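Materials and Methods. Structural model of Tetratricopeptide repeat protein. The 377-residue sequence of Tetratricopeptide repeat protein from Pontibacter toksunensis was retrieved and submitted for structure prediction as follows.
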Amino acid sequence: MKKVLLTALAAATISVASAQNSAVNSAILNHKNGTLDKAQESINQAIEHKKTKDKAKTWFYRGVIYQDMIGNPIYGKMTDDKTPLIVLESFDKTLELDGNNGEFAKQVPARKEQLYGQVLNQAVEFHNNQDWENAIEKYKLASKINPTDTTSVLYAAYASTANKDYPAAIGFYDNLIKMGHTTEDVYKNKIQLMQATEASDEEVMKTLSAGLEKQPNSVYLMQEELRYYLKNDRGEEAMEKLDKAIAADPSNASLLAVKGNLLERKKDLDGATATYKKAIEIEPNNFDANYNLGVLEFNKGADVNNRAAKMDYATYQKKGKALEAEAKKHYQAALPYFEKALEIQPKDQATMQNLIKLYTRLERKADAEKISAMLNQ
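The predicted structure was written out as tokens:
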């Protein structure tokens, strides 16, 4: 008799467990048939029951069912902002229960990558509609799903900047740097935001120094660092540092272009001119050296013209024409440098604006109109 009772009890236990396993199986079948509402109902039952709540299979299919509802033309309306979090929680729980090499755990990375794409697409849609707050939240969630991908963090920085939340944007750029995404633009954008928030010179210079360790040939970072040196009466220190860098890499045209800029700031225009020309000898397509040489010659011409404009009529009659001819020589000298600069960077607006001024002063109306049309495209 005892044997019969035990057999009956075992049968009852198996029946209960099978009933709960059938909830998982029902969820899988409904998912396969595309009836995701029924699949959701069944998997929610299974996730609550003590017999199936600790099964990797249960959590995996919970993640799959909820994930496939996202963006679905019929069942998408049953999702909300919490749905991706439910999916992420489900897949993380799958890994916890199944280990990295389990049957279901092996399928999680591909599913997480898909989820990342879904959330990132949502973020981009908000971004394109300039709904910055929602875009940022989605970018943050995308980063949580895939902590190694820098795309969502970078665009979160862009969105925060557009939203004028500069401290948040700086924080995202800091995250990018920690992740090893240390491009020139990351440091440039962070520094500009720091300047907009009136960070101390010491903080900005610390960031500039860190940036130059990662991007030692960045002209922008070098010029900004030198500007802060000069601002803080450390011009000699700046020149000494620059000369050491040039001595270590004498064929680096970018370093010479920066030195030319520093000499300009120190009012040594002859030294600046010679240094820019040396940079062009090494690298004919160096934009900064060509552009700055054009500016130097243009400004010389403008200074001569201004002297002529300030003359009284009698003095102008004697000396004015000679000064105008001298100014024209400087404008002519500036022209090839600006033309070369535009060749190097065909969309640079400052170069085009200066060329329009030059062509106008040299009475080359057709050329001025041509550049003006390019500028307005």
